[in-house]
Amino acid sequence: LTITRSTDGGNSFQFWGTVTQSNNRDLDNGHLVQLSNGDIVCTFRNHDGHSPSTDTFYRITASISHDNGQTWSFLSQIDQRAKNGVNGLWVPFGRISKSSALQVYYASENNAGDQDILMRSSTDGGLTWSGVTVVAGGSTTGRDGMPGCADFTTNGQAKVMCVFETTEGLGRFNVKSVVSNDDGNTWGERAQVYIATGDNNNAGAPQVMAATGGALVVSFMTDEDTSQHNWPTNGADMKIVTSDFTDPAKWGRKTLVSGVQSNWPGLLAKNDGGALGCAGHNGSSVCHQIHFS
């Protein structure tokens, strides 16, 4: 797992450090979050095996850096279990709560057709972890996965929105959201964010951010423009939709960010009111500056 760093606002990136490396581990899904003391925690999947199809033991692992991401050391295991049918652990996302706890959201498979979003929290910088909070999927059947969360305020009420892909209701991937009114302790208001246009097309791998200018922004990949029906390998691009800080959100202004083939997109809010939108693109990685009007 490699860290790259930009010192020019995301216009270019250079190698900065390595979180971990192994010849016999499935290492992926890295996500960074900075603690109040300046330390950076990277959470990631850390499975025994070479790929999701050959994994034999599942872990969501945390490593820590004390020098702004240049060197790293093991911190803790957030969750782990041996393979037993289809029961993998995937795609962690870190958030610092209003109470200064480190929360990690991740996907947990129940079987081939059902997956939930779970959250565990730490009040000691990631050394130890709480029990499980079910964020999404506990009362539905579908593959809820790839969570991303953002804080926003509407009508004086602080809220957290988490978005995720799911197959619930359609049998193909679409994007939904849930909202917490108590800093991530409980969740509800399951709602639709985006359904791909056309027949049997998909939309997935979402992320959400709150722009400093006052908009919620959700990114996702979709094959709706090509209808190649080889999801997610071929025919997908990266798009965003936006909403004002309202609850429920009102999504619109769909915009293409990165063309075919774009995989596993992500967003970063910038201090100038814009965003950095990045995705794997034709075997490499590409980032786009996004501005809102």
Features:
4-stranded antiparallel beta sheet, mainly beta, Neuraminidase, 2 domains, about 290 residues
Characterization of the model:
This protein has 293 residues and is mostly beta strands. The protein has no helices and 21 strands. The strands form 6 sheets. The protein has a 4-stranded antiparallel β-sheet with strand order 3-4-5-6, with no helix packed on it. A hairpin with a 2-residue loop joins strand 20 and strand 21. It starts with a strand and ends with a strand.
User: What pattern of helices and strands is seen along the backbone?
Assistant: EEEEEEEEEEEEEEEEEEEEE
Quaternary structure type: single chain
The total of beta strands comes to: 21
Give the strand line-up of the largest sheet.
3-4-5-6
Low-confidence stretches: none
CATH architecture of the largest domain: 6 Propeller
Radius of gyration of CA atoms, rounded to a whole number: 18 Å
Q: What top-tier CATH class of the largest domain fits best? A: Mainly Beta
